[in-house]
Write a structure and sequence with these properties.
Elements (H helix, E strand, L loop, with lengths): L10 E2 L9 H5 L10 H17 L7 E7 L2 H12 L6 E5 L2 H12 L4 E5 L8 H10 L5 E5 L1 E2 L4 E2 L2 H10 L3 E5 L11 H4 L3 E5 L10 E7 H5 L12 H10 L10 H17 L1 H23 L14 E5 L7 H10 L2 E2 L1 E2 L7 E5 L6 H18 L1
Parallel strand pairs: 1-12, 3-4, 3-5, 5-8, 8-9
Antiparallel strand pairs: 2-10, 6-7, 9-10, 11-14, 13-14
Helix pairs in contact: 2-10, 3-4, 5-6, 10-11, 11-13, 12-13
Amino acid sequence: MIDTAYENPYLLMTPGPLSTTEGVRKAMMRDWCTWDDDYKEITQAIRSRLIQLGECTPDHYTAVLLQGSGTYVVESVLTTVLDDDSKLLVLENGAYGRRMSTIAKTARIPFDIHSFGETNPVDPKVVAARLDADPSITHVAFVHCETTTGMVNPLEEVVRVIKQRERSVIVDTMSSFGGMPISIEALQIDFLISSANKCLQGVPGFGFVIANTNALAQCEGRARSHSLDLFDQWKVMEEHGGKWRFTSPTHVVHAFHQALMELETEGGIPARAARYAENQARLVDGMRTAGFHALLPKAQQSPVITSFLYPSADFSFAAFYESLKNQGYVIYPGKLTEQMTFRIGTIGDIHPGDIDQFVRVVSRLHRFHR
């Protein structure tokens, strides 16, 4: 039986859903009316704060909230932004880049995919050459932090070569926005996508898009889906003071509002990024001492999630997982297609002291299982 008390039975060492604060959980203990002005004001406050966190000006950028998981929001962007005269290039080095191409294929969006392999970052020079060779490409989409491995792709460099060639940029920052500084307007990103339950430390239930207002305004009538029409969602929020088109996850929205206030109290994105980086560095050092080695080199590693290689051919992830869970920690299985790995997240309400305790437990368990 799962303990239904408010205390968490274990710490989520995952990239989202993640362990949240008591304040965020308590924020969900009140009911809200979606039509009420108080609730719509919360939505508007969230939209405004997201623009600030993305280092944007409201004259040029807008934020749109959308019900569902992060993948719903990615699909909303791709199926609203691209019409039959557009062509998408997906830059892929993991499962979430491949998911973009699956969405495009399902929606019959003209697209190409360029794969860099699961353990290589997106190469800006290759992107530039690909765009120069195919002038029919109008939009480029890629993942900033590919949680398949924990790879962080060179956002600024990749966006720069795309914008130099006057193509539109769609960036999935699901696992990085709020935990790594991103200057959306300075980079001229057209559509940035993220989720409530990642580095901003809310709970699952909705995602959001920070969009160039002029680019979004051109998308009227393009949507291939009624529910996922990003333009209409934006239009209703703009014209009705924060109203969602359809029933919104009210408790989740209020929890996210609380999470944004807690981010500000912590010191904003710079302070959170520093904490996550410290968590990840301590994790890698401690795991190495315990006999586990990270898949990626330090230069390519994000502070969000780290993949570790199996230490031996007879290593049982299932047994290791259950032992850790019994000690109060939940981790992630691997997602690579060619190498045996498991993954450990370092975001959420996790602090360096938690990491130190975790690696002590890992060291003890690994000695037992060998």
